[in-house]
């Protein structure tokens, strides 16, 4: 067929796979009359791979997430008394990526991305292979062998990566013709001798139990196991990785590969932190330099959208239109001042062409609002249906809209390396763009550039996970065990207004993992003034039933959330929120869009506040793709934690990694 790669293996326990691995190795070398050496295994491996005439099936338990399968390192919840000293050790791979010197600590609210900053486990057998690859986003990696037979590693310095790729492609051109992204698939092994003969430096080592292997940024590596073994690996990123991260972004754009995380968002998060202490002095230099590079590149790309010399006397009708995305990062600083990214990759828009995460800015064509583009010339040309070399933006100026999270002046102001001339040029270009006034255009941009439910680290499903409850009680939804019928005609204590007066009791915060818009709607229902830090988005027009004094349902919130039932506020102690600020409204029902747990794209989720068997508030989130399988818990945060875990696992499954 036209496809190639690895197939699915069987299902094993750790011990049953060991029996399978040991049996396979003993049969393979059953005719040998002397002990098998490392060199023997290596010769046999390449005899099989290079020969091509032997059909052989081996299995590899790779990319096993420690959150579901457990870590080989001791943890606070799984530790023998004699191993307690290792629970907090920086050499424990559960801790290493989140050390102060690793930038991955600031990659997300809890610093964890499965397989990147949270370890994966690998269980191999004789000839189990991790094919040639370099790490996602050109990160450093560290691999520890817990147990078993040795593992052969081959490594190529990062400085020779381009030469390596050229030789690789020349060796298997027919495979690259079928799939230009072959090197990202981790499914092809070529003998190191081939590269050495073409002048590529290749290094070799054998890893044994108790040993670490560290790979450097952009360095290609591959290898195989000598028998049953168990390894664990994770990525990390000291500050000197930043230029490599930038290089990976540019390469991925050229190859149309999605990065694992937004490089620009991470740098902006780092740039807003105070790294003035001696420990981080060197890191601060790298961050300042990278921030300045990003600001300069953004200036050049936005300038490309402005034909001419940005003459401020140009009429507004002739200038490119722009739209500043509300809730920019400067308003999204959590209490620990550690993560201010404001939006997760699961909800961040990507360029229709190169798949780059559009964190800083993006462009939209009014005539085709379902596509968004980065500001590169190639991607803009495809967005506008023109050839790159013949692109004439002047002819599209009335249709093109720039959306951005930060003005150029804001970007340059973050870096202390910026001078007055840079800031003046940035300010001039900022003023040249004309702010969008057409509400329908703003609405279209909202759909694509304002992911729903990503606010200030408290109201979003992603970040509310750690904010509400650390050990939520998980409940199962059984027939007859829960009251699931929403209130059809709620009397909504606290939301009904009397004689036009505002209602007296409405949640000040609503930790149900929706979005800030829900809070603002509820505040508006209560006659409270919502804070304008979301650019007005979500302050929907509320229509009232004059006869009953109740708001008319459903209430459209933003462009991805609908409140279908406001429910009844339960003034009972058990229904009070964890901070004692409000009471949960029983029967509350809303629907919102969020990334699917089963496939790429988004689907609809129904969110409900129910009453449990013992009269306690219980929360349910139900995907439209799994209507008979609601996620139910005593904590709304835990519901969304389970959703996000499945979304992240789905994304991780599409990033095959081995080691």
Task: Walk me through this protein's architecture.
- This protein has 659 residues and is of the alpha+beta class.
- The protein has 17 helices and 22 strands.
- Strands 15-16-19-20-21-22 form a 6-stranded antiparallel beta sheet, covered by helices on one side. Strands 1-2-9-4-7 form a 5-stranded antiparallel beta sheet.
Q: Report low-confidence residues grouped into runs of 5 or more.
A: 327-341, 446-521, 523-539
Strand order of the largest sheet: 15-16-19-20-21-22
Tell me the helix content: 25-40%
- By helix and strand content, what is the structural category? alpha+beta
Give a quick account of the main beta sheet: strands, pairing sense, barrel closure: 6 strands, antiparallel
| DSSP summary, beta strand count | 22
**Cα end-to-end separation:** 27 Å
Mean pLDDT: 75
Radius of gyration: 28 Å
Q: Which word captures the global form?
A: globular
